[in-house]
């Protein structure tokens, strides 16, 4: 009942604001908005009008990001149809899932930051808290909802998230931001941007503390919470024919992790900790060789070191069983149970964009990537994979209203073999601002290094336990069919998108591989590899920006899943809807609200409401923004996992930002 009352009140509020503002929208929008045709870069890796795109796309604009009061980039994705976001084992291990299919480490989306892949090919997942990325630095987020392996490679399986940061020219000066709530979560951010001749630059840093969950579902205490510290430097050089960008970032993650619940292992007064350091450097160059031909080249290096330390007391009986020792069974041995994982990546890419005339555009790309891992825990040493890629994508205006898009990528991996991923789509423009589209694509999720080469052991005081080995798994495969309709109405500040899809997935690999199960199976890690799923669904989103400054974004997704294993079915949320509303009350104050409802997200319903009041004051070159608000859980269930329970259903927060 609360859900429906809340929805009715919010929708009524939107309706009242809309009625007051629609006349002003027709008459008072500025000229730039009146003539605006939104452009996107993600589907074909080159700027094109969104109305001509044949795949399903969402765009989270910079204005929405800054008004949303969201603190971490991954949490933005709850406002994209089909996504849900939240912690799993720990507060730092977030699930960012599109169309479900697994929970404990979601492995089926590609994530890019300014064209740099942050997806781990070693132990497949995106480790969001380790990214040197501040939400205040983000210009927009484009999400290709559906496979796009013809542009981004085999692991672009269910979606591609492309995070694009702001130009330093848009952030000139300084900013300081602080926020805190009554549950121990707090964050501080600062940046300085400057300009020197053709160079612009930004230096930014942040530190966020998350207290995490305090208790399990049965009332036992949890060891949760983390501190994330990151810094980033971004330099851009531009002249009439070329652009150079340099991106450097470092992150430290200091996190509490769950206790090992193993008979014969105890912690005393100690608590297990995880430390992860990550750094990257990216160099990009873009050169306009002629009005019809542009060359792009980029290189990036990414390195992360991860160490998890459990200071424990272990009975000799456990060491005899797992470490093949011959010790007195009742003797207690003190020591450190360590888990380490060091990853490194080099990636270089060359791209050619050729537009011989207004009817054709060719985007051709070649790249080489080297991934390596060093881990005593998971690999008993060092492994390396090399990946070579060649892709081509064509856009052809067959008739004035009909645009054909086609592409394919060929990949060769030294460990997993060869894969080809094709895609073909068509867009029919009904008007300059609206279109119908259809798209068919095929993609793979190739086995990661852990799937193929794992030799998993626990390391206690430098001694390895009995290893559990992986023997390799087949590549997961998806064929996706999409149809959709996009409409932009700039005179109203309104755009909306409707889509329907079918995704047929085969050879899905279960991610719940356990060490103790492997020992019972003769030391072999044997995940289920014959999992199948077919998902049929519809998704919708609407964005509205009135002349008086009201901003509305609402989304809806429904999916019906047929699978041959309950782990897949239970990881799917059949229905999710979100509503965000921000409207000025006067020149200084605005009121903002957010509502999220998810039905059976990992079998649990989720319902949340956020309300906050913002104040903005400009004095010369200084701008102050501040606010207070509350987040309210409207359900009485855990979130995603049975041990993710919140005692306080309402949390209060405050924030302030000074720009000068």
Provide a concise account of the structure shown.
The protein has 660 residues and is mainly beta. The longest helix has 27 residues, at 2-28.
Write the layout of secondary structure elements.
Blueprint: H1 2-28, H2 31-34, E1 39-40, E2 48-49, E3 57-60, H3 62-68, E4 83-87, E5 94-98, E6 109-113, E7 116-117, E8 138-145, H4 149-152, E9 159-165, E10 173-181, E11 186-196, E12 199-210, E13 226-238, E14 242-256, E15 265-266, E16 273-290, E17 293-315, H5 316-323, E18 332-357, E19 360-375, E20 381-397, E21 402-413, E22 417-431, E23 434-445, H6 449-453, E24 455-456, E25 459-460, E26 463-464, E27 468-470, E28 476-489, E29 494-508, H7 515-520, E30 524-525, E31 531-545, E32 551-563, H8 566-569, E33 575-584, E34 589-601, E35 604-619, E36 622-633, E37 650-659
Parallel strand pairs: 6-9, 27-30
Antiparallel strand pairs: 1-2, 3-8, 4-5, 6-7, 8-9, 10-11, 10-37, 11-12, 12-13, 13-14, 14-16, 15-17, 16-17, 17-18, 18-19, 18-25, 19-20, 20-21, 21-22, 22-23, 23-28, 24-27, 25-26, 28-29, 29-31, 31-32, 32-33, 33-34, 34-35, 35-36, 36-37
Structure, described:
The protein is globular and about 80 Å long. It contains eight helices and 37 strands. A hairpin with a 2-residue loop joins strand 11 and strand 12. By secondary structure, the chain is mainly beta. The longest helix is centred in the N-terminal third of the chain and has 27 residues. The strands form five sheets. It has a 22-stranded antiparallel beta barrel. A five-stranded mixed β-sheet has the order 3-8-9-6-7. A three-stranded mixed β-sheet has the order 24-27-30. The chain has one domain: TonB-dependent receptor, beta-barrel domain (Maltoporin, Chain A).
């Amino acid at each position: 009942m609360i859900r429906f009352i809340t929805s009715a009140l919010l929708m009524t509020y939107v309706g009242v604001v809309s009625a007051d503002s629609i006349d002003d929208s027709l008459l008072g929008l500025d000229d730039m908005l009146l003539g605006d045709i939104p452009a996107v870069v993600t589907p074909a890796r080159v700027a094109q009008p969104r109305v001509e795109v044949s795949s399903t796309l969402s765009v989270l604009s910079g204005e929405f990001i800054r008004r949303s009061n969201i603190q971490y980039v991954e949490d933005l994705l709850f406002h994209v149809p089909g996504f849900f976001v939240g912690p799993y084992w720990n507060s730092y291990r977030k699930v960012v899932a599109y169309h479900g299919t697994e929970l404990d480490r979601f492995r089926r989306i590609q994530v890019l930051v300014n064209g740099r892949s942050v997806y781990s090919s070693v132990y497949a997942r995106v480790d969001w808290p380790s990214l040197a990325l501040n939400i205040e630095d983000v210009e927009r987020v484009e999400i290709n909802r559906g496979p796009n392996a013809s542009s981004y490679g085999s692991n672009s399986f269910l979606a591609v998230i492309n995070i694009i940061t702001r130009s330093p020219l848009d952030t000139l000066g300084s900013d300081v931001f602080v926020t805190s709530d009554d549950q121990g979560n707090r964050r501080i951010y600062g940046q300085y941007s400057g300009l020197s001749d053709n160079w612009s630059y930004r230096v930014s840093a942040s530190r966020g503390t998350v207290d995490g969950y305090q208790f399990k579902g049965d009332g036992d205490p949890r060891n949760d919470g983390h501190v994330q510290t990151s810094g980033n430097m971004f330099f851009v050089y531009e002249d009439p024919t070329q652009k150079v960008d340099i991106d450097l970032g470092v992150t430290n993650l200091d996190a509490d992790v769950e206790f090992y619940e193993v008979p014969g292992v105890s912690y005393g007064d100690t608590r297990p900790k995880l430390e992860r350091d990550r750094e990257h450097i990216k160099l990009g160059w873009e050169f306009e060789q002629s009005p019809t031909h542009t060359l792009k080249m980029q290189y990036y290096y990414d390195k992360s070191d991860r160490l998890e330390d459990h200071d424990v007391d272990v009975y000799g009986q456990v060491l005899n069983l797992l470490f093949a020792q011959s010790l007195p069974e009742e003797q207690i041995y003190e020591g450190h149970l360590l888990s380490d994982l060091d990853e490194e990546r080099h990636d270089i890419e060359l791209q050619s964009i050729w537009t011989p005339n207004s009817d054709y555009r060719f985007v051709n790309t070649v790249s080489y990537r080297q991934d390596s891992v060093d881990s005593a825990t998971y690999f008993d040493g060092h492994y390396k994979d090399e990946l070579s890629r060649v892709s081509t994508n064509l856009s052809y205006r067959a008739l004035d209203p009909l645009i054909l898009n086609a592409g394919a990528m060929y990949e060769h991996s030294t460990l997993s073999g060869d894969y080809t991923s094709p895609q073909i789509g068509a867009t029919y423009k009904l008007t300059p601002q609206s279109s119908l589209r259809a798209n068919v694509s095929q993609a793979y999720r190739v086995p990661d290094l852990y799937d193929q080469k794992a030799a998993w052991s626990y390391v206690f005081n430098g001694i390895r336990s009995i290893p559990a080995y992986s023997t390799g798994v087949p590549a997961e495969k998806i064929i996706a069919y999409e149809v959709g309709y996009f409409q932009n109405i700039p005179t109203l500040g309104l755009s909306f998108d409707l889509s329907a899809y079918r995704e047929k997935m085969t050879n899905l690999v279960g991610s719940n591989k356990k060490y103790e199960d492997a020992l019972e199976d003769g030391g072999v890690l044997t995940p289920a590899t014959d999992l199948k799923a077919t998902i049929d669904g519809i998704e919708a989103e609407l964005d509205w920006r009135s002349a008086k400054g009201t901003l509305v974004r609402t989304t809806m997704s429904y999916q019906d899943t047929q699978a041959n294993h309950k782990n897949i079915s239970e990881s799917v949320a059949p229905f999710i809807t979100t509503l965000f509303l921000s409207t000025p009350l006067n020149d200084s104050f605005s009121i903002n609200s957010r509502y999220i409802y998810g039905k059976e997200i990992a079998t649990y319903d989720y319902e949340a409401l956020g309300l906050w009041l913002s104040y903005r004051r400009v004095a010369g070159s200084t701008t102050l923004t501040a606010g207070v608000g509350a987040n309210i859980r409207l359900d009485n269930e855990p979130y995603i996992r049975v041990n993710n329970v919140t005692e306080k259903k309402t949390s209060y927060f405050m924030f302030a930002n000074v720009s000068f």
